[in-house]
Amino acid sequence: MNQKEFFSSRWALIISTLGIAVGTGNIWRFPRIVATNGGGSFLIPWLTFLFLWSLPLIISEFAFGKTARKSPFFAFRFFAGNKYGWMGAFVAFVSTAIMFYYSVVSGWAFYYFYSSLTGNLFDAADHLTYWNNFSSGYLPLLFHFMAIALSSAVIYRGITAGIEKVSRTLVTSLVAILFILLVRAVTLPGAIEGLKFFFTPEKEYLLDYRVWLNALTQNAWDTGAGWGLIMTYAIYMKKREDVTLNGALIGFGNNSISLLAGMIIFSTVFALGGDSPLAIISETGPANTGLTFIYLPSLFGKMSDYIWLNRIFATLFFMALSFAALTSLISMVELAARSLNDLGIERKKSILIVGLAGFLFGIPSALSIDFFINQDWVWGIALLISGAFIALAVNKYGVDKFRKNLLNNPDSDLRIGGWFNVLIKFVIPAEFIVLISWWLFSSTSWDPQWWHPFHRENLGTCLFQWGIVIILFIILNRLYNNYKKAGDY
């Protein structure tokens, strides 16, 4: 557990970890989920699950990384016992599998940033055709390569010179850009109607269990809870750094960015979207790209009477999306590289392996929207399993011992009460069981071929791919245990 490199300060740690949480899920996914789940009604369960799911897991991940000073595989062996190391490997693999196609999304953002900067985006008469021409060619492959190469280069420079320095620049710039866009968006004629929809709850949606289930999945997705990414960055925390306060700042900071992005999107679409703004926001389009890459470019062209000013607004938006995507992608590359490093592979060689694997395994998603959708479906849902595994590891270690020794130690700025025990022991497992049970039941009811392992989006493809990975890691974990002394994690 000899850790040699650390984040230089608490601010550096917070801003870098916030870069994990703030990603395309805040800007690309959040407004669409809100629109299809009752607007302001969705915010109530969404904020509720920040406390009942995300914050306890974020705090736990901070404690895992700071204490074990190891990647998820070894951290799980430390907290839950040697035979549970496969769970940590699964957590790491899920985020790595997401990395393979997330770099493709990052590439999309890079391309649209470039297109808006050059003005090429506004020369298109039909942005659906523009998207189809782009996504069906080889440009996504080129920009996917650029995204994974840039992320690997940042990691290669190290924690302070790479991750910390880049995160300081990108995250602070992202927030500044969003505030600039917010000022313009809320001053558009008709923007107030979008804000009313965004913040006004309706009782009928609050009584719909599907809204609550969608709120849990969205909160897990956009906070980074259960990904293992925060656990990895926490390895580089200084010894006297607080766990609880840092976790709270990440959770609230991330949700604040989502609210900021939502205000921008809803104000803009209601002001400029004509008679059917909700249809525009909730339209998924190919691979859930409808709003961001098809409709928003058209709307940005109407934000003022000056074409040059509209191009600036569009450029700022896609710059912000690119920054958000890159900071999250960097953390995924770091997790995979650190995992290989902890297995004995030299640091720089680990980064090169991850960069190459990230490019190669991302090629199918870059060239096939159907493959992209399948991977997003399978591994996005798997994040809920990862969160449940983290809660299980805390329970195996002993929740009360975990809270008293690791969260409420002399270095703590905030003291956590017994409510943490209740959440980890009962609430999070119950949330997981209810959500997975509902998903299993609904999948078999609306899909007669739910069992088929090679469909794009169904239960069978999830169980098939999860099963292969879990069985493989259980076998590898047993083999690893046979070659290690008892108690040597």
TrEMBL record:
A Pfam family of this chain: SNF
Membrane topology: Multi-pass membrane protein
Compartments, record wording: Membrane
SUPFAM superfamilies in the cross-refs: SNF-like
Domain of life (superkingdom): Bacteria
One Gene Ontology CC term in the entry: membrane
Transmembrane segments: 12-31, 43-64, 84-114, 138-159, 171-192, 212-236, 248-272, 306-330, 351-373, 379-398, 419-441, 463-480
Predominant place of localization: membrane
Entry keywords, A to Z: Membrane, Transmembrane, Transmembrane helix, Transport
Descriptive protein name: SNF family Na+-dependent transporter
Native source species: Melioribacter roseus (strain DSM 23840 / JCM 17771 / VKM B-2668 / P3M-2)
